Amino acid sequence: MLHKLTVHELHKKLKNREISAMELCRDVFKRIEAVESKVKAYLNLTEETALSAANAVDEKIKLGEEVSFLTGIPAAIKDNMCTKGVETTCASKILKNFVPVYSSTAVEKLFNEDIVMIGKTNMDEFAMGSSTENSAFGPTLNPWNLKTVPGGSSGGSAAAVAADETIFALGSDTGGSIRQPASLCGVVGMKPTYGLVSRYGLVAFASSLDQIGPITKDVTDCALVLNAICGKDPMDSTSLDAKIPNYTKALVSDVKGLKIGVPKEFMGEGIDPKVKRLTEDALELFEKMGAIIEEISLPHVGQALSAYYLIAPAEASSNLARFDGVRYGYRTKQKVEDMVDMYSKTRAEGFGNEVKRRIMLGTYALSTGYYEAYYGQAQKVRTLIINDFNKAFEKYDVLVSPTSPTVAFKLGEKFEDPLKMYMSDICTIPVNLAGIPGISIPCGLADGLPVGLQIMGKTLDETTILRAAYAFEQEFGFKEKPIL
Ligand code: GLN
Fold first, then answer.
1. Does residue 394 have a pLDDT over 90?
2. What are the C-alpha distances in Å from 75 to residues 158, 213, 481?
3. Are 130 and 173 in contact, with CB atoms under 8 Å apart?
4. Model confidence at 328: pLDDT above 90
5. For residue 27, what pLDDT band results from cuts at 50, 70 and 90?
């Protein structure tokens, strides 16, 4: 039953030599054997290298070498982060058989702490989606109800954590892809400040929005993983050269006098009444604990979705130009006339429908004569949204809202209607546009499915978010687990 425990619980056991890393690793793979055929969280399991990594950890512990919090802990990595020698597909046919020769910085940092990588997790193709149904290799299912989606795009990572098929996972979040699946799967997920975690080796979707972050079983683990992966990286010029605190210092159960703003735009139309009720209950609990709650307005967030669906596809259309059948992975087997014909046949076969839709949308928005009207206009809206948040944070320490407007929805329910699917991120997208940090933590169940609470903070103020999240977690005590 070791797979049920958290990073900090297991760390104690490993350090005291109550258990070995090998035992822990075997236990997690046994769990995977029992439930993975139902959940389908992984695209690739790396059992052999995991066992030898665990063995190496045990040797280190035997020799009395220092162990960090993550040493020997099994971890799952979203399949859009490069892992040296291990296939990295972004859940796309076009990257099938692509084996990177280097690891992304975030993953490398985890390896430096001697984590045990269990495998690569399923996702929406190139991180485009909110349900993991856009994976070219079939969907992941939500462990709470196998007829529903786990959210996306980091659905595999969130489902793996929820089903105890790993101890923690990394995800990436461009418009909500860590927080929304964390919400739908009843786990903790954080998108750090843009630039806090290096994007080097993260396959680019929308470079001005993408961030890597932790998906964990509790807030303490979130702080521990964030400690390990953040920091300036010479390989990513957009990574921040900021003074980084020890995030575990934030884990104090005290929110007395904390000023919480509740944006009314996130509590209105489109939010399921049950989700809204649990959010209000959570706010009431915060108030009981001594926080000050006030309704506020972010007047421009209503335009966030429209701005995002110009900016993100525009950046994606440029980033995905590199997948041409020459440099990476897949190439068409059809007879081709010339180079351009080879490119287009390869891309027509290699990309899925959602990715093609975004490339077309983005290319159009960037074309001569339209650039200012679409991309330029969207960037202006982005500035207005940034100003809204800045203004709110002059008065409030954190902002609170639902993470997702609904609980997990049925497989297929929104698949044919992209606009419906895009609405899944109305509460998370503004946070990416503003570059600020946000976390999702469980705040109860509605109809047996988890509801997530989003806490947003000032740029580089992950500490206050973690403090509020930790205090809530201690007081609320969400202990439910999916039955598999
Ligand atoms: N669901 C959003 C999209 O499809 C966000 C995805 C993400 O954060 N990677 O673009």
1. yes
2. 12, 13, 19
3. no
4. no
5. very high
Closest CA to 183 of 151, 217, 142, 147: 151
Residue 170 has, within 13 A of its CA and on its CB side, a CA count of: 37
Q: Taking Cα atoms as reference points, which of 128, 145, 120, 181 lies closest to residue 39?
A: 145
Q: Which atom of ligand 1 is nearest to the CA of 174?
A: 8
Tell me the residue type at 281.
Answer: D
Distance CA 124, CA 354 (A): 9
Atom of ligand 1 nearest to the CA of 178: 8
> Nearest CA to 154 among 185, 128, 177, 135?
177
pLDDT value, residue 66:
87
343 Ramachandran zone, left/alpha/beta (phi>0; psi -120 to 50): alpha
> Could you tell me the distance, in angstroms and rounded to a whole number, from the CA of residue 176 to the centre of ligand 1?
6
DSSP 52-100: HHHHHHHHHHHTT----TTTT-EEEEETTB-BTTB---TT-GGGTT---
Which ligand 1 atom sits closest to the C-alpha of 422? 1
Q: How many CA atoms lie within 13 A of 176 on its CB side?
A: 30
pLDDT at 329: 83
Ramachandran region, residue 88 (left: φ > 0; alpha: ψ -120 to 50; beta: rest): beta
CB 74 within 8 A of CB 49: no
CATH of the domain at 123: 3.90.1300.10
Q: Which pair of structure tokens corresponds to residue 422?
A: 């895009």
Burial of 406 (0-12, 13-18, 19+ CB in 10 A): buried
Length of the chain: 484
The tally of domains found in the chain comes to 1
> Which residue reads 């899925």 in tokens?
352
Rounded to an integer, what distance in angstroms lies between the CA atom of residue 188 and that of residue 228?
17
The tokens describing 90, both together, are: 């972004």
Q: Which of 78, 92, 124, 306 to mutate to test the pocket of ligand 1 (most atoms within 8 A of CB)?
A: 124
Mean pLDDT across the chain: 97
Which has the minimum average pLDDT: 140-149, 172-181, 360-369?
A: 360-369
pLDDT in tens, 65-86: 989 999 999 999 999 999 999 9
Whether the ω angle into residue 153 lies within 30 degrees of 0, i.e. cis, is yes
What domain range includes position 421?
Answer: 1-484
Q: 99: closest CA among 120, 68, 115? A: 120
**pTM exceeding the 0.85 threshold for the entire prediction:** yes
Distance from Cα 208 to the centre of ligand 1, integer Å: 13
